[in-house]
Amino acid sequence: MRKRELLLILLMLFGSFFMLISAKSGYETGEELFSEEEYPEDLDTLEEFIQSYYLLLDSDSYLKSYSFIDPAKNSLQNDQRALLPFYQKLLELRNGLREQVIIYQIGDSHVQSGYLSGTARSALQKYFGNAGRGLIFPYRLARTNQPDDYQISSPQSFTRIDKPRGMSGYILGNGTESELNIKTNSFFKIDCTYDQALIYANPEATMIFSQQEGIRNLDRAESGDYSIHHLSFQDSGSTSKIKLPMNLEKLYGISLERSENGLLYHSMGVNGAGFYNLLDSPELFKQVSLLKPDLIIVSLGTNDAQGRFRGDVVTKNMENFMRMLKEEMPAVPLLFTLPPDSRKSGKTNKDISATGKILRDYALANNHAVWDLYEVMGSAGSISKWRKHSMAAKDHLHFTPKGYMLQGHLLYQAIIKGYKSFSEKRDN
Fold first, then answer.
1. Is the peptide bond preceding residue 164 cis, with omega within 30 degrees of 0?
2. CA neighbours within 13 Å on the CB side: how many for 100?
3. Cα separation of 7 and 2, whole Å?
4. Are 75 and 422 in contact (CB under 8 A)?
5. What stretch of H or E contains 298?
6. Backbone angles phi, psi at 216, to 5 degrees
7. pLDDT tens-digit map of 38-62
8. Which of 7-21, 218-232, 365-379 has the lowest mean pLDDT?
9. Contact assessment for residue 116 and residue 280, using Cβ atoms and an 8 Å cutoff
10. Residue 415 and residue 42: Cα distance in Å, rounded?
11. Is the peptide bond before 203 cis (omega within 30 degrees of 0)?
């Protein structure tokens, strides 16, 4: 009881601040997605509320140096209903009642660079536990850009397959025995070691234990049209060599994981991707379901707002994309991140805000959550301010690594805000 009494005292000291936050949130109670009978008694939501409050204090201090953003708008919309199952799982993870919580983010070039998702991943893992790097892919072997927190090399050459898209955005074609040399690093200032690797490939693939170096176990499973190869290494480390057999003709992705409870944050970005050009890749959604995500973050829309814009076409493409996603994963909570401000033909791209409105209206009408990066970054014309502060690229469309990392921190903060609000309400 002493611990809980101390927590209650701390809560009372900051009571006025918490009441202000609650008043601004505009939360309305609705149909309960979890009944009191379903809620475990040993989940300490009060402590989670206080711990996440201190996280936000540090986060707010960090963001004060960026005068060109609007941190007051940095919160998720409709998350207290749409993301309730996700927040519940995070709480169970923090209380030792769950081994993993898995996020999958799909996006365009803003995501493929890895800076946004990598920053959000490392920040969330420092609080919820580090279950590993998650999904990686030999993008450079596929002749495209790759995140900076890992390297994959091979003495053999591979064929890049763009259609259909896979869980990593691309598929690597392999026609001979080959090897992949993997090395992770601490680019995002978090432990990068791993002791497991899951290889996702075509169903005929059969990896041989004796050909693998430094592993203690190799399991193989099939799921529909795919094979999953689980390699457990003898020691935890940041380097490994994986031998691919000739019959592993298609490599869809590799997940680097740790034998520790925590959060996995998979991300996939494709340069130039939009709702409009992912519709011919039904395999993408089937493969994502193999990862068993607890939350899917959809970060598309920038490329749908380029060229000749038609709102009805964007709406149709987005709805078809969502139909295929829901067919494979109907119960997974969704978070839409709205596209950031940019220029088109030398002027502020007004179609960005129009695309954002289409996505927001759809999300709220279908009980999904929304993160409005467009408003948080400063809305129309704000890309010029980001460029002035060396946060955006010369094309006024993409961002510098520092700019993407700021966005990743903002996404992390928005999720923590939602989680704190969930914890507060669960304790009442």
1. yes
2. 18
3. 9
4. no
5. strand 295-299
6. -110, -15
7. 445 556 666 777 777 777 777 778 8
8. 7-21
9. no
10. 23
11. no
Write down all domains in the chain, each with its CATH number in brackets: 42-131+261-428 (3.40.50.1110), 133-259 (2.60.120)
Share of the chain above pLDDT 90, in %: 82
Q: State the pLDDT at residue 43.
A: 64
C-alpha distances out from residue 420 to 21, 87, 243, 261, 393, Å: 11, 9, 44, 21, 34
The pLDDT assigned to 376 comes to: 97
* Token output for 38: 């379903």
Through-space distance between the first and last CA atoms of the chain, rounded to whole angstroms: 18
Q: At what angle do helices 401-427 and 115-128 cross, to 10 degrees?
A: 30
Q: What is the three-class DSSP state of 27?
A: coil
DSSP letter assigned to residue 190: S
What is the identity of the amino acid at 227?
S
Q: What angle do CA 346, 350, 356 make, to 5 degrees?
A: 130
In three-state secondary structure terms, 164 is coil
Q: What is the DSSP string of 225-264?
A: TEEEEEEEEEEEESEEEEEEPTT--EEEEEEEE-SS-EEE
